[in-house]
Amino acid sequence: MEGVLSQLAQLFISTIPTVVFVLVLYVILNRFFFKPLTAVLQKREEETTGAMARARAQAAAAEEKARQYEAAFQAARQETYRRREAAGRAILEDREATLKRARQQSEAMVSEAQAGLAAEVAQRKNELLGTCQALGQEIAQTVLGGAARDSREGVLP
User: What are the angstrom distances between the C-alpha of 20 and each of 17, 24, 27?
Assistant: First the structure.
């Protein structure tokens, strides 16, 4: 067993430079290769994640601006429709007022014309009445004057 132990000790002693070399290689690789590589990968991951977060934030901001634009556009459209409707109502009210004035003027003119016609009819009736009375008297005188003349001549009516 002593032989085995001495062979193991000799094996262990012969592996010490390899172990030291592997440890030194590990330290060197870790310090000059793996740590910078890990740092670069971690920084890249953070930047990628940050860029994606910024992109999401910008997309959300763009969406919000689009909603605000759409709301402003809708408000402007409603304002335009409201103004157009108000202008239409104003035009209709103006038209109604004009028609009402025209109707009142025409009714006034008709009333004046009717009053004028009624006055003229009354005047013509008075003239006709006067003329009829004068004609009646003239006819009566003619008839009575002719009857008196006929009775003098012997003809009876």
Answer: 5, 6, 10
Residue whose token pair is 């990628």? 48
| Nearest-angstrom CA–CA distance, 127 and 120 | 10
CB neighbour list of residue 130: distance below 8 Å, 6 or more residues apart: none
**CA triple 120-121-124, angle to 5 deg:** 85
Distances (CA, A) of 139 to 16, 111, 134, 153: 175, 40, 8, 20
How confident is the model over 75-110, as pLDDT tens digits? 999 999 999 999 999 999 999 999 999 999 999 999
pTM over 0.85: no
Which residue is listed with tokens 């459209």? Answer: 77
